[in-house]
Design a protein that fits this description.
Blueprint (H helix, E strand, L loop, with lengths): L1 E4 L14 H9 L3 E5 L10 H6 L3 E3 L2 H6 L3 E3 L6 H4 L7 E4 L7 H10 L2 E4 L14 H18 L21 E5 L3 H13 L2 E6 L2 H10 L5 E4 L2 H10 L2 E4 L25 E4 L20 E4 L2 E4 L9 H22 L1 H6 L8 E4 L2 E2 L2 H6 L13
Helix pairs in contact: 6-7
Length: 371
Amino acid sequence: MKIAVPKEIKNHEYRVALTPTGARELAARGHSVTVQAGAGEGAGFTDADFEAAGARLEVSVDALWADAELILKVKEPQAEEVARLARGQTLFTYLHLAAEEKLTRGLMESGATCIAYETVTDRQGGLPLLAPMSTVAGRMAIQAGAHSLEKAQGGSGVLLPGVPGVAPGKVAVIGGGVVGENAARMALGLGAEVSVLDKSIPRLEVLDDRYQGRMKTVFSTADAIDEAVRECDLIVGAVLIPGAAAPKLITRAMLADMKPGSVLVDVAIDQGGCFETSKPTTHAEPTYVVDGIVHYCVANMPGAVARTSTQALTNATLPFVIALADKGWKRALADDAHFLPGLNVHDGQVTYRAVAEAFGLESVDPASLIR
C-alpha cells in the first residue's frame, strides 16, 4: 500500500504521525512509505533517519497527497489538507469532529474514508490511541497551570507546592480518567493539595486505593464543582465523552466566585471544552483572561513535547496502521470489532453517531459498510 506521512501544519504542531522505526516496520512488510521532507524535524527525526528506515522523501505536498492510498497524520486536517483529500483515500488521524462541523462537512464532501484515533476502543472499554496523548496532556496540564499562576503570566502569584510556613496551592481535577489521573499525579508530585472529581464511584475507589488517600476523591456534583471554584487556585478540565462534545461544567457566571488570578486548564478543548468560557488557543498564544481568570486552552498540548509524544503515539497506532496497510480499511475494521468504532466518515456519510447527533446529521451504522 502507498502510505503518506505529511508534515503537520497546525500552529506549533511539531509531532509527526510515524517514527522512522514505524516506517521501517511498514517497509519491511512491502509497503511504500513516503514522508514529506522535513516532516520529522520538529520531533528530532531527520530526513536521513527516514531514508535509512526505507521511506522515500517527497518535497511536493501536492504529489505526496495525490499519490497516497493511506494518509497518516497527527492532528485533524486543516482546510488546505481537506481540499487535497479524495474518494478512495483513507485518512487515519485525530479528528475530534463533534466540535468541528465545518471539518465534518468538509470530510464528507471529500468522499474519503476517515478513521479517528480517539474513537478506537479496546476490550476493557478504553481508548488505546487516545490514552498516550491523554497521559502527556494530563501531565502537561499541571506544568502549564503552574506557569500560568505566575504573576507575570497574569496569575495570582501562587506557587503550587508552597514553601515551609506557607500553605500549598489547591488543585481540582474534574474527571478521573487518564488525563485526570495524570494531572492529579503531577500535582501531587509538586506538593499541591489535590482533589479529583468524578461521577464514577468505582473509579474514585481505584484512585483512592492507588494513591493511598493522598488526593481527595470527590463525587462530582454541582455543589462539589461550586466548592472547587471557590477554593482552588488551579482547575483542570479533564472530562471526556468519547466522540461527543464535552459538557460545560463551569459557566461564566461561576468565574465571579473564583479567586482573582486563578487558572483554568481545559484539556477537553479538542471536544469543545468543558468550561463555558473556553476557546481554542495555540502554543504561540496559549492563554487569555476572562473576568480575571486565566484560561489555558491549547488544542494540541502534546505538540510541545513532540519527541516524547511522537514515540508514544507511534507505539500505540502502529499495529492499527499495519492492519490498514496489510488488509485495507474494510477488512481491517471487519476483523477487529474494537477498530470499527474508529470509522467516523466514509464516502460522504457520517458513521459515528455522536458526531452526527452533534450537527443534526444522519448516521450510518459502520458495520453495514464492511459486510
